Amino acid sequence: MQDLSRCPRNLLVCERSSFQNEKNRVSAQVEQMHFNYKVSLLLPDCSSAPSHLDETLKSFNSFYLIKKLPIYKLLNENFLRSAIYNGSVYGLSHQTRIDEDNCVSLMPNGILTLSLDKDSFELLGFEGKPSRFNHRRCSRFVVTVNLTDSCMAPGRRNYLRLLEGLKSRLPLQTDFLLSHHPGGGASLHPLLSCCDWSEHQPEVKFRSLTNVSFPVPESCDPHSFLQWLGAVESGVSGENSSNSFLSSLICPEPKTQTNCALSACVSGMLLPQDIQRLIGQLRSADGTHSKHVGVGLVCDSPVSQESPGAGPVLGGADSSRFRGQPRVLGRERAWISSRRRELLQPADVPRPHLPPSLGCRRTRCLPTVMPLTHQNQEN
Amino acid sequence: CAAMMQGQTSDWKIAGPCTFHRVVLKNASPHHYMKVHLELEDNSNRLSAVELKHFIIAGLKNLHGEVGAALNFDVLKYDEGSLTALLRVHSSGLVKLWSSLTLLGSYQNQSCAFRVLQVSPFLLALTGNSRELQLH
């Protein structure tokens, strides 16, 4: 019988340093987060958003929703020239679930990723590899294509093969979110002009909080700190007694009390460049208390699922000092799974496109059977 | 392992603010958090937070006996309108609580079901869900 007290594996990586420290990886981590869904801010001693911050939050780049986009149109020659070769395109299939549906993503470095179920993968007939997400049962496959590679230039054999596959054998169609940096809509025109599209601005929400207890970050362990931050963000009361029937959650000690605080969140398809700008604004702002920033990633992105990157939570006591705690929003399983992969041996992962490994071809050595002699019988 | 984690977290606390300090905590989350939604056959029926907790405890007792009924879990937040709740449970009790919720099938002689919407070792992760992004 399985042990009922076991729970799914989890991993938390916490980093604390000055922004000036050469080992600081906040900028590098934010740059790697291509598909962000939500950014939340917690500003103590603040009843309304400072004007410069309000302006930054409301100036996040807009994004486009294309209805029922045939995926082969992403290989359109004009679109490749105007958008993909000349800048950073962020694209992601919308309302598709990574565990049930076929998902598509387009990264700023020109890499197109298709996460397909087994039947679709076989229909497409293009080289791919088994998804790392579920290594026990090989039911999903990931096709990764670098559209900026010379072998994928329009007219080349690989390009034509993928185009043919997406046009005739596997005519994938999905709602698609698209954004471009720095060109915006003008660069995407070749694609938008032949589709049904709408432009959307990230949604900004503010919430005023009163009588909030703040733990002292230096004397609080990371899990308690994250729990407190989550409780404040989700409006859970931290003022409970230890014998309360419903909840015994409390703010970690020691703590300080503030009369007011402001919680702000932006949601939509958010570009890492906008998040970098926001962090820069917060660093330059005055203040004596910690400011906290949390970034939530899109959980159904094939890229998030395959790479071990994670969204950070940042907090800091003054303008030049933040505390970084990478965290995962809505995709813990992917994080855990990608870490678990390191514990596997290469032979544990099926690779249908490769010839069997040497280990499989090795002949088994059977033990030699010795004839039973009179002397052996005596022993 | 626990002593090592204790050491790591205490190092984390005493580290100076300007030095670079990195802590990796593996399977160290003390709690798990669940966002659940109760579906009732009769939508007009409403439960209070206390009734909901009683109902879940009854389910734990049915499946895991007195030991299950003694399992500590918290109802952190509950919305009576949407019958959605945030639960916190010790990581060691997650499987027992989840299995009880799955097998709870009737409330006051009417069919019901718990839908587990999100589960995470971090409460912060339950504050947003990209699947809820609706664009019109």
TrEMBL record, chain A:
GO biological process, one term: tRNA 5'-leader removal
Lineage: Eukaryota, Metazoa, Chordata, Craniata, Vertebrata
Signal peptide: none
InterPro entries membership: RNase_P_Rpp40
Top-level taxon: Eukaryota
Organism from which the protein derives: Oryzias latipes
GO cellular component terms, A-Z: multimeric ribonuclease P complex; ribonuclease MRP complex
Pfam assignment, any one: Ribonuc_P_40
Official protein name in the record: Uncharacterized protein
TrEMBL record, chain B:
GO annotation, biological process: tRNA 5'-leader removal
Gene Ontology molecular functions: ribonuclease P RNA binding
Signal peptide: none
Keywords of the record: tRNA processing
Source species, domain of life: Eukaryota
The keyword tRNA processing is assigned to this record: yes
GO cellular component: multimeric ribonuclease P complex; nucleolus
InterPro entries tied to this protein: Pop5/Rpp14/Rnp2-like, Rnp2-like_sf
Family stated for the protein in its record: Belongs to the eukaryotic/archaeal RNase P protein component 2 family.
Protein's UniProt name: Ribonuclease P/MRP subunit p14
Record organism: Oryzias latipes (Japanese rice fish)
